[in-house]
Amino acid sequence: MAALKIKKGSSSHSAYDLRDSHSQVESSHTLAVIVDNEAGVLARVIGLFSGRGYNIDSLTVAEVDHKGHKSRITVVTRGTEAVIDQIKAQLGRIVPVHEVKDLTVEGSPVERELALIKVSGTGDKRIEALRLAEIFRANVVDSTLESFVFEITGTPEKIDAFADLMRPLGLAEIARTGVAALSRGA
């Protein structure tokens, strides 16, 4: 009987992974999951992903209905169409889950993320950081003689681009909220 070996950094995945790497291309999907706002629900949702070897690219959760005690979990994950369908079906079977929507299938969702980015520097680097922040519509929310903290909202790609430009100017730290998303239209 052959043993299953998984090497770190190899293309092998979990023993539970049902992905057929030869049949389809993986794509990113944004899922909105409405759940009861109670202890342990988030752990169960995350456990579904980790137990089956699926990665979570972004995860946000907040109460959206105070009277009904409902929360919305927004998960960005990658997989083939079959894997995404399996994730949606398995999420739907978790008892406190009320609704699972694949916002990506419904059309290009409106996605935004908030980031706080600390940049340390003086002289020309400081001036360049302020100039780029203005172009990206990032706000200065804290300033010292040696650093800035910028607040920026936008698509994950916009935040990535801003962070990449800040690296050579003294990017010291970054904190990101994760994606919040809604489907377009009615």
UniProtKB/TrEMBL annotation:
Pathway: Amino-acid biosynthesis; L-isoleucine biosynthesis; L-isoleucine from 2-oxobutanoate: step 1/4; Amino-acid biosynthesis; L-valine biosynthesis; L-valine from pyruvate: step 1/4. The keyword Protease does not apply. It comes from the Bacteria. It holds the Pfam family ALS_ss_C. One of its GO terms (cellular component) is cytosol. The keyword Transferase applies. Residues 1-21 are annotated as: Disordered. Residues 1-10 have a biased composition (Basic residues). Residues 30-105 form the ACT domain. One of its GO terms (molecular function) is acetolactate synthase activity. GO terms for biological process: isoleucine biosynthetic process; L-valine biosynthetic process. It is an enzyme of class 2 (transferase). Its EC number is 2.2.1.6. It catalyses: 2 pyruvate + H(+) = (2S)-2-acetolactate + CO2. Keywords: Amino-acid biosynthesis, Branched-chain amino acid biosynthesis, Transferase. NCBIfam families: acolac_sm (TIGR00119), PRK11895.1 (NF008864). Dimer of large and small chains. Catalyzes the conversion of 2 pyruvate molecules into acetolactate in the first common step of the biosynthetic pathway of the branched-amino acids such as leucine, isoleucine, and valine. Belongs to the acetolactate synthase small subunit family. PANTHER family: ACETOLACTATE SYNTHASE SMALL SUBUNIT (PTHR30239), ACETOLACTATE SYNTHASE SMALL SUBUNIT 1, CHLOROPLASTIC (PTHR30239:SF0). This is Acetolactate synthase small subunit. It comes from Thioclava atlantica. The gene is ilvH.
